[in-house]
Automatic annotation (TrEMBL):
This is Sugar phosphate phosphatase. Its EC number is 2.1.1.-, 3.1.3.-. Its cofactor is Mn(2+); Ni(2+). Keywords: Hydrolase, Manganese, Metal-binding, Methyltransferase, Nickel, S-adenosyl-L-methionine, Transferase. GO terms for cellular component: nucleus. Residues 39-438 form the Damage-control phosphatase ARMT1-like metal-binding domain.
């Protein structure tokens, strides 16, 4: 029986049996609560209240579109979200999903698994006494259930406004980034190998720090990119705790050198937040194509609204459309190019229900073999963001020095790299003493989003 991160557990242990050896330490959550506890106790209710408020503010739109039925639906969705807020705030038992959806059975089987771990007690899985990763994902899946149980507004994205606001508030930085990309495009042919590598590293770092714009961390409060991120990279370098960018360069530049034999170089990007972060990822993807470091890019978003700011297919298309219609010619050219990449099949967007399920990634081979097989076609997979890191490493309280490869527990469809700012109490692959030193100098270094990593797990 191994332990993992509990939301809040007075015994200091939650029972989450894992079927692999790992240096697992449980996070005993002191009464003040860990970051996990504060997320569920304080931040989640804030996010639910904002979702309820959004529904309220769209009441007349629902009436215009659907008449009385729209009003009824708004009332129903609000009452379901209010019930969810009460359950989470008062540590009620976690209840099964009732509305038919692609993964209802998978979620309920996982809930039964959580129940089986408590079998020697008559306890039910509860909000404050279950693994944080499970509880937080469950909460967002319950938000989705509340909406799909309220037709005809069952396709409403309660987070859409916040994601769009993030984009518009970041427009200055987006413009600067697109201009930078277009200028780079005009000089790319004259760049020496080393210069090309440095440009690649710049855009990787921009994609990394774009991950700070995370609306779940901010509790739904605005978290846009207001400064020109390109000018801040040098100052931010000391905050990169693990820097495997050289591995990414050597992998892709070798693919480029052997292009005659291997005609395709595919980079897969498992996306995170929409808005500014998504633009940084699309800029990186564009550069990978026109620098010839890759020949096709595959993107993975979320099938349902997720963790407030995560990207759905609607967000992906909306951002490209917005960039295309920007009144700055260089920005608009980016949008036109990106739309053409999609049309030509050089950019491919994939949806899969696994990404919004309860499982950590080491279960993917068994739970979603089709997705695992798809990822195996990539030469390199970039996992953006903190939640992906938690699912890559099983959100266990590993020792800081445990090798990344070990924490992945056999998940390795292809060479992969986590590009993540730290917003949860988990980090592996550090040097001896590095974690302790940070804790001594900055107790909250794991959760502020101020530090970042490029953590690579290469060819076996
Ligand atoms: O995956 P992202 O967008 O980088 O971050 C998501 C996230 O930081 O938001 C929550 C903040 O409490 C965490 O649970 C989760 O890891
Ligand atoms: Mn996110």
């Amino acid at each position: 029986m191994f332990t993992c991160r509990a939301v809040h557990s007075v015994t200091g242990f939650c029972s989450c049996r894992s079927d692999y050896l790992g240096s697992l330490l449980c996070l005993s959550c002191p009464p003040s609560g860990s970051f996990a506890y504060l997320t569920i106790k304080d931040r989640l209710p804030q996010i639910l209240t904002k979702a309820i408020d959004t529904l309220h503010r769209h009441k007349s739109e629902f009436f215009e579109k659907h008449g009385e039925k729209g009003m009824e639906a708004e009332k129903k969705a609000i009452s379901l979200l209010s019930k969810l807020r009460n359950e989470s705030q008062t540590d009620k038992p976690i209840i099964p999903f009732v509305e038919k959806f692609a993964d209802t059975d998978i979620w309920n089987q996982y809930l039964e698994y959580q129940q089986s771990l408590l079998n020697d007690t008559d306890e039910k899985p509860r909000w404050f006494y279950s693994p944080w990763l499970f509880v937080e994902c469950y909460a967002y899946r319950r938000i989705h259930e509340a909406v799909i149980q309220s037709p005809p507004i069952d396709d409403f994205d309660v987070f859409k406004e916040a994601k769009e606001q993030n984009f518009f508030e970041s427009l200055e930085s987006i413009t600067a980034l697109c201009i930078h990309l277009q200028e780079l495009m005009t000089t790319i042919e004259d760049l020496e190998e080393n210069q090309l590598k440095n440009e690649f590293f710049k855009l990787l770092q921009i994609s990394l720090w774009g991950n700070k714009c995370d609306l779940s961390l901010s509790g739904g409060e605005t978290s846009s990119q207001k400064t020109n991120i390109i000018n801040t990279l040098e100052d931010l370098k000391p905050f990169i705790l693990v820097n495997d960018m050289e591995h990414l360069w050597s992998l892709l530049s070798n693919c480029k050198k052997t292009r005659e034999k291997v005609s395709v170089t595919r980079v897969d990007i498992v996306l995170d937040n929409s808005g500014f972060e998504l633009v940084t990822d699309l800029v990186l993807a564009d550069f990978l194509l026109f620098s010839n470091l890759a020949t096709e890019i595959h993107f993975y978003g979320k099938m349902i609204p997720w963790f407030v700011s995560d990207t759905t297919i609607h967000d992906f298309n909306w951002v490209i459309e917005q960039v295309k219609h920007c009144d700055h010619k260089w920005v608009s050219k980016c949008g036109v190019d990106w739309e053409n990449y999609v049309k030509m099949g050089k950019w491919v967007y994939h949806d899969h229900i696994f990404w919004t399920g309860p499982h950590e990634f080491c279960a993917m081979f068994h739970v979603a073999p089709d997705l695992y097989a798809e990822l195996q076609k990539a030469h390199l997979i970039l996992f953006k963001g903190d939640l992906n890191y938690r699912k890559l490493t099983g959100d266990r309280k590993w020792e800081f020095t445990v090798p990344f490869h070990r924490a992945l527990n056999g998940f390795h469809p292809a060479p992969l790299c986590s590009i993540r700012t730290l917003k949860a109490e988990i980090q592996v692959g550090l040097r001896p003493g590095q974690g302790e030193q940070l804790t001594a100098s900055e107790p909250n270094w794991l959760t502020t989003g101020k530090y970042g990593i490029f953590q690579f797990d290469g060819p076996l």
